[in-house]
Amino acid sequence: MIIGRSTELDRLDAVFGEGRAAAVLVGGEAGVGKTRLIREFGGRAERAGARVLVGGCLELGTDGLPFAPFTAALRQLVREIGVAGVAELMPGGSTSGLGRLLPEFGEAEGDPASGEARVRLFELVRTLLERLAADHPLVLVVEDAHWADRSTRDLLTFLIRNLYGSGPLLLVVTYRTDELHRSHPLRPLLTELNRVEGVERLELSRLGRAEVAELVSSIHGGESLLPRLVDDIFSRSEGNPLFVEALLGSADGMSGDELPDSLRDLLLAGVQRLPDETQDILRVASAGGARIEHRLLAAVAGLDESTLTRGLRPAVAANVLVVEGDGYAFRHALIREAIHDDLLPGEHTRLHARYAEALEADPGLMPERERMVELAHHWYSAHDQHWALISAWQAVAATRESLAYAESLQMAARVLELWEKVPDAAEHIHVSRLDVLSEAIELCDHGSETELGIKFATSALKELDETAEPMRAALFYEQRGRLRLRLGRQEGLDDLRAAGRLAPADPPSKERAKILATLAIQLDGLRETEEESRKAGEEGVLIARAVGDIETELQFKLRLGWLNLFRDDDVDQALANNEEATREARRVGAFQPLVRAHINGSDVMEGYGRSEDAIERARAGMAETEALGLGRTWGTFLALNLAEPMISLGRWDEALAVIDKALARDPYGLVKASLHYLRAEVAVARGDLEMATPAIAAARRLIGRGAVTKAQDFFPVCRIEAELLLAQDRPAAAIEAIRPVLDGHGLRAETRYGLPAMVTGALACTEAGDPAPLAEMRDWVAPLRLYGPVQKADLLTFNAEAALAEGTNDPAAWQEVVAAWDTLGRPYQLARALLRAAAAEAVAGRRDQAEPMLRRAADIAHRLGAAPLTRKIDDLARRSRIALDPAASAVPRLGLTPREEEVLRLVAEGRSNREIADALFISTKTASVHVSNILAKLGVSGRGEAAATAHRLHLFDAYDS
User: Fold this and answer.
1) Model pLDDT for residues 916-944, shown as the tens digit of each residue
2) Cα–Cα distance measured from residue 927 to residue 438, given in angstroms and rounded to the nearest whole number
3) Is 408 part of any domain?
């Protein structure tokens, strides 16, 4: 399996498929995957009937072996067809002219020093390649051209310039970009060849984080590793596939310790060829991190400007160091790591101490935040525990001020690590160990390090005397309770109740208001705790007002607005109140209410059928959470509120991109569970049960039947589990999967999440031919209060499906369902309703009524990629003798893939390639390729014409109507 190279592989396939003479120059640094790409492409070409010849240049000092790749390719050819077979392709049937390349061909004639002999040799090679290509398409691969000798470069140039216009012959040349120093002879040649007709250039970039995760999983037999381990591997390898594999293959690669010897040797090979004085400077630079300012390097190295510059030049020329602004960076972080690991123990300690002393002596060498972190790092690496403790605590404040919560947590953990090693630690940093623990827990909260935060809180509570310090104990219980509830743990409620009992009520305090706010919010949604939640909320809001705690009061205001929405069903007033709370939270800098307002606002919009507005509100919220440094916690929560309306609107590829990006950030348990079930929802609808099954299992495992959870988390998992069972043709089991919703498990009968589950339950009854369970479902549905048009559409669907399960197939009822979903612009539910309505009309003998509905359903299902629904539509069409002719469909298909349709929709909205890339979480280059393919398929010359074509043909009416 090849990962992260689909665009490049497709391009090679496309050039090969054109059936003409062409050349592709493939560049990339060592280990980036050039050989693997070419091997995969070569295999495809061979399966397509091509002959693939491969030869590589050899590293033999400053100049390679003459004509080495052509000699290797000819040797392979002889093995395949023999010398006689080659002779049949040569002018006059003689191979002697090729004897200079391969002795098997005989002794070459003529003076080897003459220019004529050289020209004749080049012409013979060209003739041989052309005649080989006349029989079968030919691919000639020349690998590692950065090591090519002058003769090889000349022959390559001759062939590329003279093969154009020949038959199906593709010449692929690979080279390492990191070897091409400024005076390398291949550099001007590449520039020259790039201007030749029929030549393309591909540059292989490093893999992204998601691609590294996929590579790691494939190496481990499909098993996913913890996101933190993937992050470590990605950070160290910087996306170089060879380095990823080497780190995983080493004994210590998983723990982030020493580099494997083979990888270290590879990384140091180029360094060891440099002058001794340059290697000395690189050793100094390696202790300064991946990037170092020139002034700081000069201060630590202790060299005058002339000596330092002279020593640096060979490192820059050899591409070991690259110039970045006023400093230098190692070309790859692992090169720095390999050099640093090669330091002797005493050398290591002295170097880091010199860095720390230089940064102390001249604070202007680095920006303050970076300087504080670097000071903490260097004192720690110099084994000076006293100054390491002090500088780490100072770095906690500096990094938190900059919203760098992950770095701040790392520094707080360093302080706790050093605490027992430094006598009188509290006096040195002027805070207690409990203060440090409290800070660390909050940083864990912000940084989604939930398990670690629970451990810190538990440690603090063991050290505390609850009787002597009840408020401090209460705050630690509140912190631990919130973190435990994120993981759905029952003990979280016990912690919050303990916090409420311990926090003194007199005098009123911000601390007690905060605790009661958390308690009221977390208890809301459970039947048996509604009264407890109400009392906590009433007391908490009074305290917050009394002590002037605007942030906590805003939290209560948001909660009250949420409750009032379900009391009054006035969505416009609810959204107006939410906007007011948003403005107030932004004004006073209250980030938790601000983020909660984004969550509530986008959730209400989606719940009331305003999916486009929900998308915009969720995007705005995600942007603010990123700015606040909370992308991994609240940002992933908002990713749910972004993906859900995208799924509703049929923008499934976009939704999956959002989900995958959020999952890659390793969110806490309940958010991760919800992301998995949304992923499963799309997968089931598309018939991808291989994706759906593990996603549902992960969601079920994370939520757990015995954990503290809410209807919004629990009911959808039951529903999607039932949908999967229906896809597996197990309707009776699907009915049982819905049973926990009917039983409630202590949860309120939430309409928004419970009613869709009942729709699936009724569908399961229809499929099973068993209407008996419907009585219990009707009893569960009957007392529900409906909020907004989505829930009304769900109820109409449930009633029509339940009637069908009981033997009544009313066309008018299904027409009402169609109208409801059509108004809401939710294509998947609309297509399912259209199928049912068409079936009802067909049964009634009104094929003319059924035909347009079935065709519209077929078109929507096709566009969504909803294969199971498409099969059902095709089956009904076949049984009803209705022709689903694409030409007669209301929406032309035009041969676009689902991804291309998503891109065209964004083009029609006037989005640029960059905006398309951001919306779909792809690279700008990939977006550009999609747009080019769309223009070709539509037969238009530009984006404006493409957009006009989309609007003229009503390509997206199925989504928007």
Assistant:
1) 877 765 777 788 888 888 888 888 878 88
2) 46
3) no
Kindly report which listed range (503-507, 615-619, 664-668) carries the lowest average pLDDT score.
Answer: 664-668
What one-character-per-residue DSSP string does 697-714 give? HHHHHHH-TTS---HHHH
Per the structure, how many domains does the chain have? Answer: 5
* Closest by Cα among 828, 823, 827 to 793: 823
Eight-state DSSP code of residue 786:
P
Q: Which of 206, 198, 211, 147 is nearest to 176 (CA)?
A: 147
**DSSP code string of 658-700:** HHHHHHTT---HHHHHHHHHHHHHHHHHHT-HHHHHHHHHHHH
Which of helix, strand or coil describes residue 369?
helix
Q: Give residues with Cβ within 8 angstroms of 375, minimum separation 6.
A: 356, 359, 360, 387, 391, 394, 395
- For residues 169 and 219, give the distance between their C-alpha atoms in angstroms, rounded to a whole number: 35
Q: Is residue 749 part of a domain?
A: yes
**Most confidently modeled of 63-67, 220-224, 462-466?**
462-466
Q: What is the DSSP letter of 136?
A: S
Domain membership of residue 572 (yes or no) is: no
Query: Is residue 480 a part of any domain in this protein?
Result: no
- Distance between first and last Cα of the chain: 41
Check: CB of residue 621 under 8 Å from CB of residue 599.
yes
Mark whether 851 and 918 lie in a shared domain.
no
Helix axes 150-162 and 115-135, enclosed angle (nearest 10)? 50
> How far is it, in rounded angstroms, from Cα 235 to Cα 226?
14
Tokens read off for 211: 């691609």
- Position of tokens 């038959």? 167
Separation of alpha carbons 920 and 923, rounded Å: 9
- For residue 906, the Cα-to-chain-centroid distance in whole angstroms is 20
Q: How many Å apart are CA 729 and CA 725, to the nearest integer?
A: 6
User: In the sheet that 321-324 helps form, which strands lie side by side, from edge to edge?
Assistant: 291-293, 327-330, 321-324
Which range of 195-209, 256-270, 451-465 scores highest in mean pLDDT? It is 451-465
Q: How far apart are CA 952 and CA 946, in angstroms?
A: 10
